[in-house]
Amino acid sequence: MLLKENLGPADFEQLVDEQKATASRLIFTDQSIFELEQEKLFAKVWLYIGHDSEIPNPGDYVTRKMATDPVILNRGEDGNINVLLNSCSHRGTLLCTTDTGNTKGFTCAYHGWAFGLNGDLKATADDMNLYDGKVDFDTLNLKSAARVDSYAGLIFATWNNEAPDLADFLGDARWYLDLYRKRTPQGMEVLGAPHRWVVETNWKTGAVNFGADGPHAVKVHGPITQATFGIPPQAVRDSLLYSPAISMGNGHNGILPFIPESLRGQVPAFTGYPAELIELYEQCLTTAQLEVSRDLLGGVQTMFPNFSSVQAPAIFRPGGPPINMLAIRVWQPISATQMEIWNWFLVEKEASEEWKHEAMLAGVRTFSPGGTFDQDDAEAWAGITAGIAGQQSRQGDMNFQMALAYRDQIIPDFPGPGKAYPSIYGEVTEFDVLLEWQKYMTA
Questions:
Q1: Quick one: 266 and 123 in the same domain?
Q2: Could you tell me if 155 and 187 lie in one domain?
Q3: Where a domain ends, among 110, 130, 162?
């Protein structure tokens, strides 16, 4: 176990070796490193909180987490979005204990201190005059996030006043976010409350995997991929091996698996979507984005540090059409060896109710606590934690050395921004997540 007070920038320079494309197993197991992440990373960066469609009306709220801190996301009476620390400024009691609702304010169950939707203190346990004017109550409002902003309905917040604007933080990643979240005039909506489940692994395991790990798809998901997508494992491998992985900058990474050449004549363009939505995509996406979207088999992304998404077409009725699902999720850190996954499903607001129902079912059956793919991943990730928990086993490195073969192979004419690499098997974008993590930990 490392000692927190003894860890400095030089240590983190050694824990991730850019030249060798390796990372110490300690960054996935050591609690001291986990505690430092809370102050050096999660307190500094933009974090995903929720979707605009979850709080459409004044007074609507949901309770969420910013890393290990509980927060309340709400829409104020003025229509503005507030992100408040869910901790009473009197004695620290968890202020709001329900997941969602509508209210005019928040009252602490312990002493009755009451706060407005914007976090302003409205009342104490009794008459404020009992304090005899010796307390400045303006200093006892709820703590608010330093900055709150949104993109494509995705709401982010940060505790850091000096953080770059959200638009600058997302940067080139916005082009790729648009492929999945800004392809119709009205945009997306959330289908229900988030699914939540705990996995015995470090939060970075999920972020790196969705950054994205190509080879595991055939090895871990091979049989279920053929049953769910109607695509044989060899075709899946071909798609992953010869499709691009994208480094979008600022630690944002992802993959764009295309329909393999062997299936181009059999699989229609925009597979998994109804004609009425495709017409809207053609109105909203740019020519370059349409070029990329037509032959996409899916898509997986991680927006640094811990917000990810996955899109895939699923077939659950023999002979029936594929139904695209889109899941977004946060890898919530609990400890060095445990995370909680918060998972939502999105769909276009313009979609029919029938399509929304089918998309929800496709998501639940694939990427959810009971979904076939998440069950596969959870088992593999817990195996990592078990495999590197010992005194000897945690001394080794995580190996991303396929990146050595691919990191200089940048596609020169790829239609999207960022750096596109010719293979999802390349491990470059996975490792990029850890290189960005290292920047914050050495700052």
A1: no
A2: no
A3: 162
Residues 150 and 176 in one domain: no
In the chain, how many H helices and how many E strands?
13, 22
**pLDDT tens digit string along 129-187?**
888 888 899 999 999 999 999 999 999 999 999 999 999 999 999 999 999 999 999 99
- Which residues of 67-135 form beta strands (DSSP E)? 69-75, 81-85, 100-102, 105-107, 114-116, 121-123
CATH number of the structural domain spanning residue 68: 2.102.10.10
* Count of the separate structural domains present in the chain: 2
Domain boundary among 135, 162, 189: 162
Domain presence at residue 29: no
Query: Is the residue at 91 inside a domain?
Result: yes
Question: What is d(CA 104, CA 100) in angstroms, rounded to the nearest whole number?
Answer: 13
**Residue 259 half-sphere exposure toward CB, CA atoms < 13 A:** 20
Are 198 and 312 members of one domain? Answer: yes
Residues 271 and 352 in one domain: yes
Does 215 have pLDDT greater than 90? no
CA terminus-to-terminus distance, the chain: 22
Q: Do 151 and 217 fall into the same domain? A: no
Per-residue pLDDT band for 404 (boundaries 50, 70, 90) equals very high
Instruction: Please state whether the predicted TM-score (pTM) of the whole model is above 0.90.
Output: yes
Q: Which of 352, 355, 380, 377 is nearest to 367 (CA)?
A: 377
Q: How far apart are CA 46 and CA 175, in angstroms?
A: 18
* Same domain (yes/no): 124, 209: no
Select from 220, 231, 221, 223 the least CA-distant residue to 267.
Answer: 231
> What is d(CA 366, CA 359) in angstroms, rounded to the nearest whole number?
11
Domain match, 139 and 176 both = no
Residue 5 lies in a domain: no
Which of 46-60, 107-121, 315-329 has the weakest average pLDDT?
315-329
Q: What is the pLDDT of residues 196-207, one digit of tens each?
A: 999 999 999 999
Q: Which helix (H) or strand (E) holds 345?
A: strand 338-348
Range of the domain at 77: 47-162
CA-to-CA distance for 175 and 301, rounded, in angstroms? 12
- Give 337-340 contacts, CB < 8 A, sequence gap 24+: 337/28, 337/29, 337/200, 337/201, 337/202, 337/385, 337/389, 338/198, 338/199, 338/200, 338/201, 338/202, 339/198, 339/199, 339/201, 339/202, 339/203, 339/205, 339/206, 340/196, 340/197, 340/198, 340/199
Distance CA(131)–CA(435), nearest Å, equals: 52
Residue of 212, 210, 216 lying closest to 237 (CA atoms): 216
